[in-house]
């Protein structure tokens, strides 16, 4: 058995893989594969309707918001958000907390004036800036709720009198969020929702259609909303596997139950990092992510040896991103406590063997 600590595409529950593979052979007794059915068939219409209702239920999405299943990943949203929400000659505010925020604001600069209200680039994005002013005339404030690469997470909502837009790619469905506090939430599926290929967008309808610019249909949220995410062929299989995963999440008790498990998993790992003299966390303690745990060794020369031992025990995906170094343990919803135990056991054994 492998312990998959990969940052994305990442682990999904084993039962989801089993059901998905069955559907590739015969989808719901139709005698057809999920890969070949028409997206206009009543079978798939039921799938996409269930996807929407599961998202609505699990995230407690209030009325007045559209739920969209798009393609192009979170990276496409970096452009679609300002395309649809930033008026011509308008301005938008961005909080820069890492690589993904920087990429998002770089794209937004193609559409209007961008205020970077704060940045933690001065200390390699190891913390979340807490005090900053947001211009009152900004169309929105964009923030990245979890910084997948740098291992920080925003637990207290940014304070602003303008609509909040959040890239929640790597912590969506991992903790309770108040959708009503947001104008738009987006997430590439491949971290906590499903396989790569589908991107979730939850958008407040009243914010749309106000930019004064012509938006090509394929990039226009209103077109996708009007067509119930069937403006063109949707990523049928990715949506189906997401449904399987969201059913699993619902059966577990939903997001608040998942959040409690995630708190316990993250705490156990951080406690070992803090206790064990061979390891050191890289993110500011109060801003530590519950999804992506970044840490290094106090003696970097030992890192290769530790990685090799982890690999022997079936732990994969632990190598840190090059911009942080060391290790990154991505501990998404589907990663069980037994995988955390395997990692913390190895850290203790490593300490004993080297003392
Ligand atoms: C992975 C990731 C992205 C990029 O997602 P793509 O779907 O590959 O475009 C963007 N933002 C965050 C927070 C991520 O973790």
TrEMBL record:
Highest taxon in the source lineage: Bacteria
Catalytic activity: 4-(phosphooxy)-L-threonine + 2-oxoglutarate = (R)-3-hydroxy-2-oxo-4-phosphooxybutanoate + L-glutamate; O-phospho-L-serine + 2-oxoglutarate = 3-phosphooxypyruvate + L-glutamate
Annotated Gene Ontology cellular component terms: cytoplasm
EC number, as in UniProt: 2.6.1.52
Positions bound to L-glutamate: 40
Keyword set includes Cytoplasm: yes
Cofactors named for this entry: pyridoxal 5'-phosphate
Modified residues (N6-(pyridoxal phosphate)lysine): 191
Parts forming coiled coils: none
GO biological process: L-serine biosynthetic process; pyridoxine biosynthetic process
Assembly behavior: Homodimer.
Protein name: Phosphoserine aminotransferase
Highest classification ranks of the organism: Bacteria, Pseudomonadati, Bacteroidota, Sphingobacteriia, Sphingobacteriales
Gene name, Swiss-Prot/TrEMBL: serC
């Amino acid at each position: 058995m492998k312990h998959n600590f990969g940052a994305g595409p990442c682990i999904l529950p084993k039962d989801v893989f089993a059901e998905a593979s069955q559907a590739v052979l015969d989808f719901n007794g139709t005698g057809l594969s999920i890969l070949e059915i028409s997206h206009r068939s009543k079978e798939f219409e039921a799938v996409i309707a269930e996807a929407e209702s599961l998202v609505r239920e699990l995230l407690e999405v209030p009325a007045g918001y559209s739920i969209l299943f798009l393609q192009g990943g979170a990276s496409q949203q970096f452009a679609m958000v300002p395309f649809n929400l930033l008026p011509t000659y308008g301005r938008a505010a961005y909080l820069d907390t890492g690589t993904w925020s920087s990429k998002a604001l770089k794209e937004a600069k193609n559409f209007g004036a961008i205020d970077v209200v704060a940045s933690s680039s001065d200390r390699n994005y190891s913390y979340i800036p807490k005090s900053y002013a947001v211009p009152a005339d900004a169309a929105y404030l964009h923030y990245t709720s979890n910084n997948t690469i740098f291992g920080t997470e925003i637990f207290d909502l940014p304070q602003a009198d303008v609509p909040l837009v959040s890239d929640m790619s790597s912590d969506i469905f991992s903790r309770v969020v108040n959708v009503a506090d947001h104008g738009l939430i987006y997430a590439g599926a491949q971290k906590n929702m499903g396989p790569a290929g589908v991107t979730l967008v939850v958008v407040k309808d009243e914010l749309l259609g106000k930019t004064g610019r012509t938006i090509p249909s394929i990039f226009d949220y209103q077109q996708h909303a009007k067509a119930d995410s069937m403006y063109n062929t949707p990523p049928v299989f990715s949506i189906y596997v997401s449904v399987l995963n969201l059913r699993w999440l619902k059966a577990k008790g939903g997001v608040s139950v998942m959040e409690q498990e995630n708190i316990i998993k993250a705490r156990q790992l951080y406690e070992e990092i803090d206790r064990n003299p061979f390891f050191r966390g890289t993110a500011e303690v109060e801003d530590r992510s519950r999804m992506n745990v970044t840490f290094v060794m106090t003696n970097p020369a030992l890192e290769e040896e530790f990685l090799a031992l982890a690999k022997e025990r079936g732990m994969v995906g632990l190598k840190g991103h090059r911009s942080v170094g060391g290790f990154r343990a991505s501990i998404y919803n589907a990663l069980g406590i037994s995988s955390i135990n395997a990692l913390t056991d190895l850290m203790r054994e490593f300490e004993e063997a080297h003392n």
